[in-house]
Amino acid sequence: MSQYVSRLGRRSPAAPSRLRLHRRPRRVAMLSVHTSPLHQPGTGDAGGMNVYIVELAQRLAAIGIEVEIFTRATAGDLAPCVELAPGVLVRHVDAGPYEGLAKEDLPAQLCAFTHGVMQAWAGHRPGYYDLVHSHYWLSGHVGWLAAQRWGVPLVHAMHTMAKVKNANLADGDTPEPAARVIGEMQIVSAADRLIANTAEEADELVRHYSADPGKVAVVHPGVNLGRFRPADGRAAARARLGLPEGALIPLFAGRIQPLKAPDVLLRSVAVLLDERPDLRSRVVVPVVGGPSGSGLAKPEGLQKLAARLGIADVVRFHPPVGQEELADWFRAASVLVMPSYSESFGLVAIEAQAAGTPVLAAAVGGLPVAVRDGQTGFLVQGHDPADYARVLRRLADEPGLTDTMGAAAARHAQSFGWDTSAAATADVYTAATQAHRRRVRSHHG
Q: Where is the Glycosyl transferase family domain (predicted)?
């Protein structure tokens, strides 16, 4: 705005107020059909995307863009509207039964969800929402219709893509259905702008979904640097969580499902203890999270695997925890282990590093962007437990490595603040608004 202000401080006549208002939207309808921003990550289908939506919405509100998040009501006693933060409203939409509806059953409820969104909109004056930002393909379909009906731009974030997941399936995992692939193709074609977490994800949108490269913008997710920080150090965090001070603690934190491959961590620990039985007394393996997705079919599968591998004595299962306590688990760990088969970004990798802990991860998706191999952690090609065991052995033999890499990890994470993400997202909104106006003009012209 500064270029429109004259040297005397008065606004120059070259700045019509309409032009200023069109710079970027004042109010955004954000859609998150299958997972509520109010749910705790690590439970059910709640994960990194929940954190992403909550943090992004709060930072957008802080820079003057109001956000209303539409999500499916999962209980009968929820208030229709909840203020999450100043300028951020969560609207609960009735669509299908509250309990027991799997993500796979949700496509059948999109019509009901769209109806709820339209009802909320009907209560407002025309032009109330300036833009629709949908998250994940289910929301994209509602967003497609809403944006068209309201005459506003659609910005869409995939978060994960069926074609990419199906190309990197864990053994025995269920492929994503063809209906999802078709749905994603339609959204890619309809959106004014697509937000990708990384350059690799942007390439995948173009390669697998024929996205117009000019419509794809890369915006790295952020991390709450106030919450995830080294704080009072590893020893204090271990004392609070009842963990032994001198132990090697490889941590798994996330949804327990084949895609996230917690079994690879367990198998690698079994390999390590076979080779080095002397380490048994000082290894603790916390698994923090709940079963999700195709992991729900065998919720006890991981416990049984630990018993079969003969390492049940060193593995500790913990239900999902809130963000504050999660930060303590990260601080306490020697290393966060992420052997995922597919990750669009892997938010927990940045959160752990911000807390001062290195990351051992599969070199998939956005993880090579999140982790600097050899500096802030280790990247492994593939999912062979022996490769992960090799890194764990090195961390056991060089205890100082966790601290030196952890310090580098905390510095690396500083560049991933949510304020940066929100500013970049606001720029995408502006570009989408301009592109949409151009398209409408050429259509009417």
A: 236-410
